[in-house]
Design brief:
With 327 residues, the protein is α+β, with helices and mostly antiparallel strands. It is 39% helix and 12% strand. It folds into 2 domains: 100 residues, 2-Layer Sandwich (Phosphorylase Kinase, domain 1), CATH 3.30.200.20; 219 residues, Aminoglycoside 3'-phosphotransferase, Chain: A, domain 2 (Alpha-Beta Complex), CATH 3.90.1200.
């Protein structure tokens, strides 16, 4: 290599280990290697057809293990939009931590396109993601079933409401708590109880757990070509796969008013693929409208043009709750 100091390998492996990496990877000395160091849990080295996933430190090894288990669980489905696990290196001559080798997927990050999307274009992407999720939700989770639930507070709240954490409070108690926080009337309380009872009846599935524009690849025609970063995979409620709260500020700023319609498009695509009841779409919309209203006070963007005023979140939740009576 003409300029060894600029070699991205040196940001991940020590100089004496560089040759061993290329040997294990089957790379010629002049074969280029690029890098993506933007991830929170790992550093990624890239060739034209593979990605090499290195945990950032010892605290991130468990997340790499989750990713490996998820990719193994999904492999038999043959989804071309999910990376294929090629190998796992456990070789101290390259890294003190395991290294996962996966196929590199085509396409560009949806994050680079999100600002220019119309609501209809975004809805088309969400429908594709819902159809893909419906397929991997049918996978046997294998060892992931024994992994603990995610402890990220916003997600822990969602799991608790859906009864997905093994220690959920009774629906009546949950409804009383939410009604007090959101000032819901008796009719709204009854509908919320109906939503939670119906939602809790869905079986748990293998979820990616963190889908947003930064984890999705698309082609020039906005066809989804990849869903990556499976380190948050776990067994959870299917609703948790479609949390627009995980999406970036641009999506919220430009498309927040379209969320009810976008959610319905998501659910309809998902339910059709899995053969689930259509009427759960109302429950799905109510659930996320309520969650967004509950999260509003803790949001770092509360009151900005990202979330809008609290009254807007409350009004969206109330409209969703009363929508069934007008159907």
């Amino acid at each position: 290599m003409a300029d060894a100091a600029a070699d991205p390998l040196l940001a991940v492996v020590a100089p004496p280990r560089r040759a061993r990496f290329r040997e294990l990877a089957g790379l010629a000395e002049d074969e280029p290697v690029s890098a993506d160091f933007t991830g929170w849990s790992k550093r990624v080295l890239l060739t034209h057809d593979r990605a090499f996933l290195f945990p950032r430190d010892h605290t991130q090894v468990t997340y790499l293990e989750r990713e490996v288990e998820a990719l193994r669980a999904i492999a038999d489905l043959g989804l071309r939009e999910v990376p294929r696990l090629i190998d796992v290196w456990d070789d101290p001559s390259v890294s003190a931590y395991p290294v996962a080798v996966v196929s590199r997927l085509p396409g560009a990050s949806l994050d680079d396109r999100i600002a220019g999307l119309t609501a209809d274009e975004l809805g088309g992407v969400l429908e594709q993601l819902a159809q893909l999720a419906a397929r991997w939700h049918e996978a046997d989770p294998g060892p992931l079933a024994a992994r603990p639930a995610r402890t990220h507070p916003p997600q822990a709240m969602v799991d608790a409401l859906l009864g997905a954490n093994g220690a959920a409070a009774p629906v009546d108690e949950v409804v009383e708590d939410i009604a007090g926080r959101l000032s819901l009337d008796a009719a709204a309380r009854g509908r919320l109880a109906e939503v939670l009872h119906e939602a809790r009846g869905l079986p748990l599935v293998l979820v990616h757990g963190d889908i947003h524009e930064g984890q999705v690849l698309v082609d020039a025609d906005l066809r989804v070509t990849g869903v990556f970063d499976w380190q948050t995979a776990r067994v959870s409620h299917p609703f948790t796969e479609f949390d627009l709260g995980e999406w970036g500020t641009g999506t919220w700023r430009h498309h927040r008013a379209s969320f009810p319609g976008l959610r319905r498009r998501q659910w309809d695509a998902y339910a059709t693929e899995r053969g689930l009841p259509d009427d759960l779409g109302w429950c799905f919309d109510v659930f996320w409208a309520i969650v967004h209203a509950l999260r509003w006070p803790e949001s770092p963007f509360a009151g900005s043009d990202v979330t809008g005023p609290r009254e807007e979140a409350m009004a969206t939740a109330r409209r969703a709750l009363h929508a069934r009576s007008s159907e």
